[in-house]
Amino acid sequence: MNPNFLLSSLILLAGALVLVYLIYAALPAAFLRAENALRFRFSKHPKKELYLTFDDGPDPNYTGKLLDLLAENGIRATFFTVAEFAEQNPELIERMKDEGHSIACHSLSHKCAMFQGPQDTLADLTHTLEIMHGLGVNVRYYRAPWGLYNLTLIRELKRLGIRRVLWNVMIGDWSGRVTVSTLSHRLLARVSSEAVICLHDGRGTDHAPARTIKTLETVLPELKRQGYSFKTFQ
Q1: Residue 115 CA to chain centroid, in angstroms?
Q2: Does residue 29 form part of some domain?
């Protein structure tokens, strides 16, 4: 076989694969991120209300402590749970329901949809919903890991009537390199009316959720003092 022909064929194949990936995952993910940012920037936000949301749990070491703190402050939040973690900690799911929090989905096992084909995406979503329904949760909202969606996931969520939720306030609380002081400063500096705050009650590095809880111990009373109230995705 002609080496030049083989090389040209491989280049064309690689280009085709890149194009498919861009259309299927990279461009939809980028478009949704941009759409979310522009919608928040150019929409009017007259009410001093905040959406406090948590990803990556429930975690048996941290989520209960977070629920204690929220109860102390009279605040309800939305938990975007990883289905496998929810299945392992049903008592935490029951407590969330009992205390009036909203429970949504954050995938089956926190795999990135940008690297999942259609079949794997469908299997992930189907198993996620089966687990959550088995726990008595009617799933109405979904946040993909890292906020990244592919076309299959977008289509299926729309078909099922499940709404996508991103965020506009992120403070890097999953990192093991940030202090409570830094997290507190970031959160207070970035919050504005009707903001959707994305924090984490599981995963992270070097006991990151513990620092998130410590941050909220001082920040939540301050936000309430500033006149903010808290809503959930219902």
Answers
A1: 17
A2: no
Domain that holds residue 107: 48-231
Output phi, psi for 78, to 5 deg: -115, 125
Outline where 99-194 has alpha helix (H): 118-134, 151-160, 180-190
21-24 long-range CB contacts below 8 Å, 24 or more apart? 23/151, 24/150, 24/151, 24/152
Residues near 64 by Cβ (< 8 Å), separated by ≥ 6? 92, 95
Q: Is residue 149 part of a domain?
A: yes
pTM over 0.85: yes
Domain count, the chain: 1
Does any domain span residue 30? no
pLDDT digits (tens, 9 = 90+) for 106-152: 999 999 998 899 999 999 999 999 999 999 999 999 999 999 999 99
Q: What are residue 80's DSSP bridge partners?
A: 55, 104
Question: Is residue 86 one of the residues assigned to a domain?
Answer: yes
